Structures are given as C-alpha cells and as structure tokens.
Amino acid sequence: MAENFLSVDERRQKSVTKLIDSEILRKAQENHAKLIPIIETIIFRGRQEIALKGSDEVGPVLHNNVNVNDGNFRALLRFRVLSGDIIFENHLNSSAGNALYTSPAIQNSIIHICGELMQEQLVKKINSACSFSLLADETTDMLKSGHKSGHQIRPGPDLKKKPDFGRSRGQTSVYP
Q: Where is the composition biased (Basic and acidic residues) (predicted)?
C-alpha cells in the first residue's frame, strides 16, 4: 500500500481519481463520436427538406430486408455505414436497442436543439442589423392543423438584402 502511495506521489502511476476521470472522458468522447453521425444525418435531412418519418421506426437499423421501407432517416444512416463509417457501424451493431440514439424521441430532441440554435443565430443577426422586415404567413395542411412560417429580410454589412427563413410554428416535432 505504501508503494502504491509513493508511485502515485512520484507520478509514476496515475491516481485512482485520475484513472476514473480519464475513463469518464474516454466514455464521453466515445458517445460523442456515436452521436455525430446521427446529428449530421438529421441536419442533412433538414437542409435537403427530406422527411424523416418512416412506416416502421423499430428494430435494428442495419437489416437485410430490402422490402421494408422504414423511412428516410434510417435509410440515410444505412447509407452512411455503406459509405465506410466503421465507428458508426460498430455502434449500430454492438449497442443495445435502447442505446442506439435513433428513436423518434431522440430525433425530436435533436431537431428541437437545432431549432433553438438556429433561432439564437437569427436573433443575433437581427439584433446586429440596422433594420429588418418580417413577412409571415399561415396555412392549413390536409389534417386541418395550422402552420405559421416567417421570412425576415435584413441588410448585411454591405447593405444588400440577406434573406433568412424562420422555422414553422405549427408543429414542434416530426412525430406525434
């Protein structure tokens, strides 16, 4: 026991606290690496205006049944694996079903966070502009629920018009 204390004190060996801290850091970095492909896929889908929801959002993402259309999101995740993302493939193959980070609830959380970040950036741009105009419209979809959208125009540093599109106000998630 005294030898252990001396080796830690002389920095020849890491203390238990440092070992635990480094393990926590390693696990956080590993989870970060697992989430990045999912977040990037959701952002890509949003930029390309590709719907997320599929008819069957349960079960393994990596399956061999080509007859099942389980949605664009899961198809894009499989495409990412086919494109060579080995770390993400290992995550999908080795994680428990409730730890895949691909559920509709996780998707909605990521979409909500992205919306908040976009709104923050938009508010900063508006606050830094000398003036802006706002165009708003409301429409009703086939389910008779109202959706509001906005478009603001502000002059940039060069005083040219810079359009920014606001997010829809009628629906806060892609899943009921």
A: 157-167
Q: Give domain limits for the chain.
A: 2-128, 129-170
Task: Check residue 72 and report its DSSP letter.
Answer: H
Rg (CA), the chain: 23
DSSP state of 167: P
Long-range contacts of the stretch 90-93 (C-beta < 8 A, 24+)? 91/34, 92/60, 92/61, 92/62, 93/62
CA distances for 73 relative to 50, 164, 175, angstroms: 9, 26, 13
